[in-house]
Amino acid sequence: METAAIVLAAGAGTRMKSKKPKVAHEVLGRPLVRWVVDAARQAGADRVVTVVGHGRDAVEPLVQDTDVVVQAAQRGTADAVLSCKDALAGFEGSVVVLSGDCPLITADTIAALSRVREEQGAAVVVLTMDMDDPFGYGRIVRDPSGEVERIVEQKDATPEEAALAECNSGFYCFDAQALFEALAQVNSDNAQGEFYLTDVLAICRAAGRPVVALRADDPAECLGVNSRAQLAQATKVMQRRINAAHLAAGVTMTDPDTVWIGPDVAIERDVELLPQVMLMGVTSIGEDSVIGPNTRLTDTRVGRGCVIDETIAVEAVIDDGATCGPRAYLRPGAHLCEGAKAGTHVEIKKSTVGKGSKVPHLSYVGDATIGENVNLGAGTITCNYDGARKWPTVIGDDVFVGSSTMLVAPVTIGDDAVIGAGSVITEDVSAGALGLGRARQTEKPGWVEAHRQA
Ligand code: UD1
Ligand code: CA
Predict the structure, then answer these.
(1) 133-146 pLDDT, tens per residue?
(2) What is the pLDDT of residues 364-373, one digit of tens each?
(3) What would the 3-class secondary structure string for 420-453 be?
(4) Which of 406, 411, 415 is nearest to 364 (CA)?
(5) What DSSP character marks residue 7?
(6) Cα 99 to middle of ligand 1, angstroms
(7) What pLDDT shows up at residue 168?
(8) Nearest residue to 56 via CA among 39, 73, 37
(9) Which residues are close to ligand 2, an ion, with C-beta < 5 A?
(10) Smallest Cα–Cα separation from 329: which of 295, 288, 368, 279?
(11) How far is the CA of 225 from the centre of ligand 2 (A)?
(12) pTM of the full predicted structure?
């Protein structure tokens, strides 16, 4: 049977106290609504419709691969689903409704909702969970035989109803036809004056259509993000979930609590992650590399057998056997070729450091192409910026640059050249030559004695 998913993402989320709409807030670099859309797709949804409204300019670009429907005024969850009527005109099958503020829902659970509905021929399957503190959630009211009768919202609940522990997760699977027929009958006659999607259950039941509850295996999947505290809580759950998967796949972590890995990170086996490591964006780490401590890599590719110690890298490429840090900063376009080194207090931007070449200490390398087996002495700086434009530095193979050298770009150093320490190099240096650009040392014998104060 075909399945469509509706993702509700039109609410304001006032409790976030944010300029940004709630569903655009991120968990490990991925917006809340994106987690939900991705889970729906993974569960095999043939179509995904996202309902936007509040802050839609910020939300729409996040869900461009879905059918976007605008709910003009946020009149409640039933009204939000009803706004998808045209988008789903003629659709027959299962409609899964998901909250855009619940990023922990899994594809397995979404798939289970539609499977149970189809197996049982139900009009609705609602995912429920038992909460120690159910305050704020809708409660599942069952009849004496244990069948689901209706859902009552916190603000409409009697004290007896409020004492019920079984809560509505806000995730459902409906039969499309039953859903839209029932929605036409929902009114706003309740404490909040809103159109409640939850009323659809009682309406279906009154029409003699079966309504089923599915208890969630893991209530954490239903955690809704309504506040910054819940955002932190959801992030923590996601961190543990992602780390557990990498641990199971053969990655070592000294202290998983201090390791933060984004959802689009790939890590090969026998990688070791030391404390305080963040791997974000589309980052990948090859076999046997050791990362950390105190390292943040974003959109960075690390090869096999690398050692990356106290490093920050953004959009960098680090080939097999290269080493970084402690305290290296690789900026976009930095490329360390096989066995190369970016050492201590070294910043590299938009530059290639060739195979086996080393930039061991206190250097800035920008807009440079460095050949193989080059050694840049401590404090070497490529002066790539003249205040208006950036210029390139090209260094051949087997070059030795003495400490504290300024390479004033544009400048080219030929293969095998040697640059004397403390040089300011403003002209090209030929292959095999010694380049020197510094004042000659002078000596004044007896100067100290002659100038001694009487
Ligand atoms: C809802 C349920 C409640 C359940 C809880 C689980 C209703 C009436 N109540 O309550 O039973 O326990 O979720 O988290 O459904 N939204 C729109 N348009 C609107 C209103 C809401 O798109 O007009 C979206 C929100 O952005 C949000 C979702 O629907 O993603 C849920 O709305 P919210 O106001 O958070 O509902 P709750 O009060 O949490
Ligand atoms: Ca909510």
Answers:
(1) 999 999 999 999 99
(2) 999 999 999 9
(3) CCCCEECCCECCCCEECCCCCCCCCCCHHHHCCC
(4) 406
(5) E
(6) 7
(7) 97
(8) 73
(9) 224
(10) 295
(11) 7
(12) 0.93
